[in-house]
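Ticket #4471: structure export looks truncated?
Reporter: QA, pipeline team
Priority: medium

Steps to reproduce: submit the single chain below to the structure queue and open the exported record.
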Amino acid sequence: MSDLWGGLSQAFYMLVSLDADLVEITLRSLQVTLTALVIASLIALPLGALLAVRRFRIRRLTIAVLNALMGLPPVVVGLIVYIMLSRSGPFGVFGLLFTPTAMIIAQVIIIVPLIASIAHQALRELWSDYHDLLISMNTTHAQRMKTLLWDGRRALLTAALAGFGRAIGEVGAIMVVGGNIDHHTRVLTTAIALETGKGDFALALALGFVLIAIAIAVNLVIHWLTQTEKEGRW
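Actual output as written to the record:
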């Protein structure tokens, strides 16, 4: 019990004093995750709008695949990315394995289906309201997608935040492709796993508090956006 209280007191001191290792790991985590989020959103949001607006032959199959990929184990994604980026893989020549870039690629693959599925659900409801108006105006598919993306921006921001929450807490894929290298690819989740294994509970707890704070902040923003969207409809 004394070790626990000692670890907690040290963890709070590290938070208050802005410990160098703590700040470095936190900033790297945010850099990797935010980069992955921007790339994933650029892919997923237009895809969600396309699925809401257009009717094509494999549309239902695409939606089903996206929904299925939401439950894909992250460690499997890490294994696939590892094989693709290893020296014997097709992209091994670029030397991306065990770099932040590899971690970003893994996170993008993990969160694209989540963001696209949430975006599709939100924009499908919006499309039902806008359908007759946009059709009567003889708009193109691109114009319809742009209209939905703009008017549904609050719901899409919620989808993006959900993707951020999923990515920032990821450990399996990140550990596989990043290698948890100190001062290079070590992020919040992998550092917590390492420090806990080493018995350094102070740093592990401090990192855990930061991760919890980020998760709570994201969920509060999502809740606020959801509430304001409902009030706006009324």
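Status: closed, not a bug. The export was complete when the record was re-opened. Leaving a note from the reviewer for reference: The chain has one domain: 2-233.
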